[in-house]
Amino acid sequence: MADTSTAAAPAGGTETPEFIDPVGESGRRFPPKGQPQITGINRIGLWSLYMKEVRRFLKVHTQTIWAPAVTTLLFLVIFTVALGRGGREVLGADFASFVAPGLIMMGMMQNAFANSSFSLLVGKIQGTIIDVLMPPLSTAELMIGIVAAAVTRGFMVGGALVLAMLLWPGVSLEIAHLWAIVWFALMGTLFLSLVGLITSLWAEKFDHNAAISNFIVAPLSLLSGTFYVIDNLSPLFQMVSRFNPFFYMISGFRYGFLGESDIGAGADPVVWAAVGLLVLNLAFGVLCYRLLKSGWRIRS
């Protein structure tokens, strides 16, 4: 007699598979599909992205760290030879000591921009942008990792420049206000890192990146009071200079070494410039976050 205790097979001769309870070997139930597994800050992912970006420019440190330092040092050599003779003093310091802090800050900002503006652009051109977008990183973590690496490169270039200029005869880099050195260096590199990341989102080829660097970043850096005080300019150009955020970054950084700046008399104008740069960075940070979160020009 046939056993009638088994369930009849459905039409087609195949049995319906039993439901398997999704429990792992450890006895813990697997979470539902689509439920995030990383809550809070993905510290490992953020650190991995940061180290990836840092190692990317350290692999070619001769090009990314030492070459910009040497190029910037050549500005010091040329301008001190051309304009620094005869004991010329600016803001109470000899010309070489006046120019040196501005050149350090200019080198830091330009290289922070160069690093962040390259991060996403090379991925879009080579078709590897998915490697950055797929990992379990939030928009804020992605932005922080790229920007932090760019700030790191800026500070490394600044350190190389300080070392080189300390060895250059006639340059004195005595610290007058340490807070100003640290704050304006951070605000300057952070601002250019954010601008570079926005450029990396917008650009579709290296020519676009080079256009922003050559026609916006470089002119604003060179015309920001790096080699002169704006009091020597006409009233019209003084007003134009005061609308240039690079002017406050470089003059504030110089104030940390010389104790004097052409932002204004005393410490109050420098403090207000420090606050203004913080507000500017917050505004650009929000803009960069929204563009990155929207997938503008990086997601089809």
From TrEMBL:
GO CC annotation, single: ATP-binding cassette (ABC) transporter complex
Residue intervals passing through the bilayer: 65-83, 95-113, 142-168, 180-203, 209-230, 270-292
Domain annotation ABC transmembrane type-2: ranges: 59-295
UniProt region (Disordered), positions on chain: 1-36
Compositional bias of kind Low complexity: 1-17
A GO molecular-function descriptor: ABC-type transporter activity
Superkingdom as given in the UniProt entry: Bacteria
Family label: Belongs to the ABC-2 integral membrane protein family.
Name of this protein: Transport permease protein
Gene: yadH_2
